[in-house]
Amino acid sequence: MRGRGRERARLLLLPFAAVLLTGACGSKSQGPPDGASDRPAGDLGPGNDDTAPDLSPDTADAGDVGDDAAPDAPPDSPQDTLDDGRRDGGDAGDGGSVNAWPAPTVCTSEGWCWMNPWPHGLPLHAVWGTGADDVWAVGFQGHGIHWDGARWSWVDTATSQSLFGLGGSGPSDVWAVGGAGTLTRFDGTRWQLFDAGTTRQLTEVWGFAPNDVWVAGAEGTVRRWDGAAWSVVRNPAGSGELADALWGASPTDVWSSFELGTRLRHWDGAAWTNFTVASSAERVNGIWGASANDVWAVGSFGLVSHWTGASWAAAVAPSSPYLNAVWGAAPNLVFAAGTRGSMVRWNGSTLSTVASGTSDDLYGVWMAGAADGWAVGLFGAFIRFNGTAWGRYGRALTGEPTAVWGLGPDDVWLTGRAGFVAHWNGTTFERPASGVSGDLLALWGAARNDVWAVGLAGTILRWNGASWTRTGVGTTTADLVAIWGAGPNDVWAGGRDGTMLHWNGASWSAVPSGTTNWIYGIWGASPNQVWAACLGGTILRWDGSAWTDAASGIATNLFSIWGSGPNDIWAVGWGGNALHYTGGAWTPVPTGTTQQLLEISGSGPNDVWAVGLATLLHWDGIAWTPSRSGAYNQLTGIFALSANETWLVSERGQILRRRPR
After folding, report:
1. Which of 96, 208, 425, 535 satisfies CB 3.0 to 4.6 Å to 517 for a cystine?
2. Same domain, 168 and 88
3. What is the pTM of this model?
4. Are residues 377 and 453 in the same domain?
């Protein structure tokens, strides 16, 4: 069995209570009035808006993504189209993609590279730069990326804590702040952690000079760096709330938010003075100014307030979006970004809503100038301003792959929701039509021209090298979530309520499994030694004539099974359980997590991978350890072709490829 989608995760919950999904992205501020977090972790949100322009580079000459090295320079021709320029409408496909897929540039230190969406799908909370060729963005689990004017690349920020704020005074003085008082600085060569003297969450940073940097955060925290140490800036009375916004025109003219945003506080070099910017409990999430007498504050319920040197004048954004950040290039070119891709523009006289190119939440915006700006947010939301309009930057497959399997670096298949099928040929993703609209949950193949996919309502498809066709399975309508074969004439498929089917080279037939538990994983060492992992902790074994219970020793759900040989087999499942078979009994092995594990795959006894809810683990022959890929939420499928070639899929259609050097 190879790969499981979000549909599989949903199916496995049917006999049990729903799983409580943990937050993936964190939050630096209170959520919108409907109760959803302003940085939601589990809300997938609406689909992408296809009407906005795309501002990504052309990728026709990007080269072979299969090459270990990223290109010396990315393509510099005009514009490519997002979503591969083809909306395949679920199962329709596009008959194959003609353009080379862009070479990955955002690759972690562990070798995980973003393939889809390109250049990345990271949830980012802040963006800031010193110029058009020096832009930084940071976010979930300390992931950071850098733009050098030609391409984005991953950077090691020296922390795995989520980062919420970003700023500095120059190319060799860049600061990022985040959870548990995290404070990290780029000195022109590398990022290095600093002790801020607090464990409170830090959310904002503003720099005037290398020896004058300010940070703000939880409980009204404001601290200042003098080039040698951090000190507390005395707070006014009532500063007990999270400080979400920070900006200054000079060291004697600094603004910060507090008290649910109903008030701002202003530092004049000696003391703080409180100012009210809203009559209701609206939160200020962002502050930016063109000068000391031209400052903007934005926040919840469409809050927009303008300081002209004497007082704050409140205004309401045209569509009343929940605004998270504000930045400008000039007094008459100011943008505020917020939830559901909202973007509000000030042109010097009026506020208006403009298209952003995304419907995902935006958390950070920064302008390099009147003709260049960036905004970042949830689910890899990544847009760019070209002087005229905002548009999505990058490229992405239409649809949501949730399972992966392959025969080689130039022959990898992905299936998923709504009949999604894609094939990686070493250069690009081809999109042959699947012919179905139901979810395809698992796949396996015997050869390049003999690949199987199974899914909902008894769906079984077969690839013959030219097209996918549906094969008959008699009266079976059970959902199928597992498939594996010993050869082209010996294939097993399993699923709902213990359904087990066998292909003999001519037809499918039902075989008694001996269980009514769902069968979620199938793998075999030989035609006479085939294993199945099931709900309720059941492990089945086929000896060539019948399926029997192999006594796992546990009663919790198992979702996947894989082995490198007859005496080295793993099964994983609920609560982070991992069982290891070495020829005797199944033995529990600690994984260090209690999250559910949905899929397991490996290239050998010392190279095994397991994925699940916000979890990626690696077995090196001694112990399970976590790995940072950048993927988040539900990781649904993994397949290891070799120690140097592993593919990973996650919710929202994220595809990553690991090719360590």
Report:
1. 535
2. no
3. 0.86
4. no
